[in-house]
Amino acid sequence: MTGSSRGIGRWLLVVAVFIMAMVVVGGLTRLSRSGLSIVDWKPLTGVLPPIGDVEWAAEYAKYQASPEGRLVNHGMAMEAFQRIFYVEWAHRLLGRVVGLVVLVPFLWLLVRRRLSRRLALSIVGLLVLGGLQGLAGWLMVKSGLSDRPHVSHFRLTIHLSMALLLFCLTLWVAFGQLWPTTTPSTTTTTTTTTTTTRGLLRWGGAALVAVAVTIMWGGLVAGTHAGLVAPTFPLMNGALVPAGLIDATLGPVWSFFEAPLAIQFIHRLLAYLTTGIVIGAAWRARGADVPRWCKVAATAMVVHVVVQVTLGALTVLYFVPISLASAHQVNATLLLGQVVLFVFSARRG
């Protein structure tokens, strides 16, 4: 592995940290109900916030004409509007910064011919996905500007899912630069390694899917404020299966995608399933002949999944305070990153 590869890997790890910060700030935007404070999309000209009373008055007038401004926050003071505006503005600004953190070094490396064709195409793919992520974010906001002051929880979940996909792919490409492929020296070693790798990859793949789906379902929870409907743990409103789980107007299928109580119920079930799968994957790696980083990731996964369940319980028990809800989201992203490392290192083992 060359110094150039290590440098590229570290750069992409920094990009992944920025993407995680985007996810966290996006969560804060949702929790503070700031997402609809900016009612237009200006990818190039919206870098600076309003300057001076005239520009602020213009932004405030546009917000007051929006569904949220008319129906939810009518008469909101300018100072309160500025607070929610700055949260959404910071989220959008961070998105632009992430783009520059990828684009500028990429162009420099391209000009210096430091990138292989495959790696260059991978980074182009990350840039395209990042652009689509920004578009998905605007389409999400736009859903709350038409006729009702609430963004579509489906679009919110798509926006979150694309961010998580971008995070995972960036980590994967980064790990590929930081750890070279190793070739077993004997046939016996190859057979043993292959058997071990297949078992770990099955568990790791299951853990990756479980964590990702659970986080995505958390997007539905956030989008419908489902965390507030059953503020008890471990039971839900005093029962394993709460009464009124199925909404008669939605039916037995759509209730689990639309009804807040059913959405929280599924999220909890997914959390328990994910915990079991993650612990199983870590247990499988415990006695296996795998790279050191695989065992490090296995231990970290267990720690993060236990912390995640604890934070989730505290979040609902305390009626979704911003601090706990944000910590819940941060830890979920860290857990996802550890699972990606586990799968990658097991595959390389």
Rg, alpha carbons:
22 Å
* Distance from first to last alpha carbon: 16 Å
- Low-confidence runs of at least 5 consecutive residues: 183-189
User: Which structural class best describes the helix and strand composition?
Assistant: mainly alpha
Structurally, the number of domains stands at 2
**Which range does the strand content fall in?**
under 5%
Largest sheet: none
What is the overall number of helices? 11
Helix proportion range: over 70%
How many strand units? 0
H/E order of the elements? HHHHHHHHHHH
The global form is flat
Give me a quick take on this structure.
This protein has 349 residues and is mainly α.
What does this structure look like?
- 74% of the residues lie in helices and 0% in strands.
- The chain has 349 residues and is an all-alpha fold.
- It has two domains: 1-180, no CATH class; 183-349, no CATH class.
- The model is unreliable at 183-189 (pLDDT under 50).
Structure characteristics:
mainly alpha, 2 domains
List the helices and strands and how they pair.
Layout: H1 3-31, H2 52-64, H3 67-71, H4 78-111, H5 117-142, H6 153-178, H7 187-224, H8 251-258, H9 260-286, H10 292-317, H11 322-348
Helix pairs in contact: 1-4, 1-6, 1-11, 4-5, 5-6, 6-7, 6-11, 7-9, 7-11, 8-9, 9-10, 10-11
